[in-house]
Every structure is written in C-alpha cells, then in structure tokens.
Amino acid sequence: MTGAERAGGAVAPDERLARAALTRVLEPGDEHAGRWLRSYGAVGFLERLLGGGEDVCPGTGGKRVEGWRRRAAGAEPARDLDAVRRDGGRFLVPGDLEWPRQLDDLGDARPVGLWVRGPADLRTWALRSVALVGARACTPYGAHIAADLATGLARRGWVVVSGAAYGIDGAAHRGALAAGGATVAVLACGIDTPYPRGHAQLIGRIAEQGLVLGELPPESHPTPARFILRNRVIAALTRGTVVVEARHRSGSLATARTAARLGRHTMAVPGPATSALSAGAHELLRGDATLVTDADEIVELVGDMGELAPARRGPVLPRDLLAPAAAHVLEAVPARGPTPTTEIARRAGTGPDETLARLYELHSLGFVERYGIGWQLTNNGTRPSNARRGDT
C-alpha cells in the first residue's frame, strides 16, 4: 500500500484540504481552537474564519480570531499538499487508515493533522513504540546509555521515537539505525526543514529507513514553544517514555509528565547523584516513574504479558551450591591456621561426629585441607591469599 493510499481512508478531499489549511492557521496543541474544530468540523471552522462576521467564535478573544483569519486568508493548502507529495511525503488526518488512534487521547489538543515522510506505516509502528528523550547537552554516559537502549529495543522489534535534537535524541536515533531497526523523528518544524541543521543528514536517513513527521506545514520554522508542544505528540504516540538525562527544567520532563497523564508508562535511567544532568531523571524516580537500565527492563513494562526481564543476581560461587549443613560447618572454620575438629564443632554448635562427617565432605569437594589434628580452609573455601600453611 502506498503512502497516498494509506492517507486516503474514508476522509473527504475537502476535509483533508481544510485540515491542511488549518495547520497554517493554528499553533499545535491549541485546545481553544480544538474545541471549535470539534464543534464545527474542519470545513465549517475554516469557512467561518474565511466568511467574515463578528461572532465567528463566541467567547474567543477578538485578537486571537483576527490572527486566525489573517493566516487563513493566506493559506494555500493545495500548494502545501503538492509540495509534500513531490518530496514523497503525505498528510495524515483523523479517519485515515494510517492515523494512530492513540493521538485521540490528547482530546482537544490532538493534532489537526500530521505531515509525514518515510516508507513505513505510522499506525502500525506506533503500536509497538517507545520514546527515548533527554538532554541536548548530554554527557558521554548519557549518549552511551541512549544508544545502547535504542539498539536493544530495535533488536527486540520495538520502534524508537524521539525528537531528532542533539544529545540524547540523536544518540537514540543512531542506536536504532545502527541495529537496522525502526525509528521515528517527531519534528517541531516542517518536515522539509530539518532542524537542527547539524542533523540534516541524520533526519534524511530516518526518512529513508523510518519516519519523519510533524504538525507544521512545509517551510515552517521551530520556536521554543513548538518544541514543548511537540513533546505531547511523542508522549501520546508511544507505549512509554524513557528519560535518560534531564535537568530540573527540561522539555523531557514535560514529555514524561504528559505520558503519565495519558496513562502511558514513564521510566528514567539513574545517573550520578552529583550530576545536574541527572537531577530531572531522579526527580521522576522519586515520583511514579520506574527505574530502568536496559532494553529488557523497558520491554517488561511496555511489552506483552510474559515479556519479563531476566532475573538479576551476582555470580554463583561454589560454596553457594553446598547443602545447608555443610555450609554451616564451613562457616565455622577459621580463616587462618589449622583448627581442631572439637573447636570447629563448638563454633558451629554441632556434635563432633556430625562436624567431622561434614569436614570430610568439604575436604572431598576441595573446601578444606587437614593438617595433623586440625582443619584449614583452602583457597576454594576461601583462605586469604596470603595465609601460610600450618605445621603438620
């Protein structure tokens, strides 16, 4: 199925054209405009803005309505749609086969539509996706963790979603691409206007192997407010959000908090307690976020029932395999010098015969050695490396 076919669905052409125009008129996430859009529909709302009259949107400030009208008068949706199609892209709206329905959880802040580049089906990919976000000015530790998590998720068949920014975002995208996996970049500008400029090549690779999408029409530029508003799409689109590194004031925390409000999983990776770049992640962990350190732990939260992370434990030592009675006697053998059986029995609180039987068992297993009337630990037992052999 081609991108144009996936973007077809049951949506009328005039509805798609009106929504394309409204992406020029409204700022992303404008809930006030979203209420009118829900009341009038895209075509009706646009007609009201273009038709004049003083009572277009009762209760909405005059300056706001006037701004909408000016932008609506200058919108050229057919030109925008043609420009995106020439670049191999498409414009998705609610009702399309490819529209990710989890975005509807945003209510009146739901995107008017999404401009998309890339060969994959967004709805299918979003069903099995995780957001990896964090600081732009990240540490080498943060970049390593982000790339490692993305690689692990990609190898397990999960889609990595991020914002294509410097730092953690870029490391996450590169980690997924390096594993031959799937990744989605959600931009705060037009999909034909790569930002940051230093990531133009990376965004181009994502468009070839994955998906690049945004709410803004072609040639739109990013603003600080648009970055924050973009984050709600990342949160809503995915099954969970992982914050790798973030300061106390960070857009990544906004992404995680939006995810929590929407009922998605929120996760964070711990860092040094002395690092300001980990302070935001630690703040989340003091709340309702879950601590994660690798892809297995992420999948355990966001995956299907039974996708559990492997049990974590230290290495198994030979003495861990001993029967309880033998282990108890072994603990009673002093670390230095040969010790008589009676003294070991006293320390262990067992009878001499039982103690002697256990000592011979431990001797056969290489845990103790006999010196005359006494017993001493071997290195397997474990005797200190600088212990000297007792006299026989």
Note the run of SSEs as H and E: HHHHHEEHEHEHEHEHEHEHEHHEHHEE
Strand content: 5-15%
As for the CATH topology of the domain at 118-302, it is Rossmann fold
What general outline do the C-alpha atoms trace?
elongated
Return the CATH class of the domain at 118-302.
Alpha Beta
CATH architecture descriptor of the domain at 118-302: 3-Layer(aba) Sandwich
Distance between the termini: 85 Å
Radius of gyration: 31 Å
What structural category characterises the helix and strand content? alpha/beta
Instruction: Classify the oligomer.
Output: single chain
Question: How many helix segments?
Answer: 16
Widest β-sheet, arrangement of strands: 1-2-6-5-4-3-7-8-9
Strands, total number: 12
Helical fraction equals 40-55%
Could you walk me through the main structural features you see in this protein, from its secondary elements to its overall organization?
This protein has 16 helices and 12 strands. The chain has 392 residues and is an alpha/beta fold. Among the domains are: 118-302, Rossmann fold (3-Layer(aba) Sandwich), CATH 3.40.50; 318-377, Arc Repressor Mutant, subunit A, CATH 1.10.10.10. Strands 1-2-6-5-4-3-7-8-9 form a 9-stranded mixed beta sheet, sandwiched between helices. It has a 3-stranded antiparallel beta sheet with strand order 10-12-11. α2 (13-25) packs across α5 and α7 (140-155) crosses α13 (295-302). The longest helix is centred in the first third of the chain and has 21 residues, at 31-51. Mean pLDDT is 90; it is low at 385-392.
Compact summary:
The protein is of the alpha/beta class. It has helices spanning 3-6, 13-25, 31-51, 62-74, 77-86, 122-126, 140-155, 168-178, 200-209, 224-237, 251-261, 279-286, 295-302, 324-332, 341-348, 352-364, and strands spanning 89-92, 114-117, 129-133, 159-162, 183-187, 211-214, 240-243, 265-268, 290-291, 339-340, 368-371, 374-377.
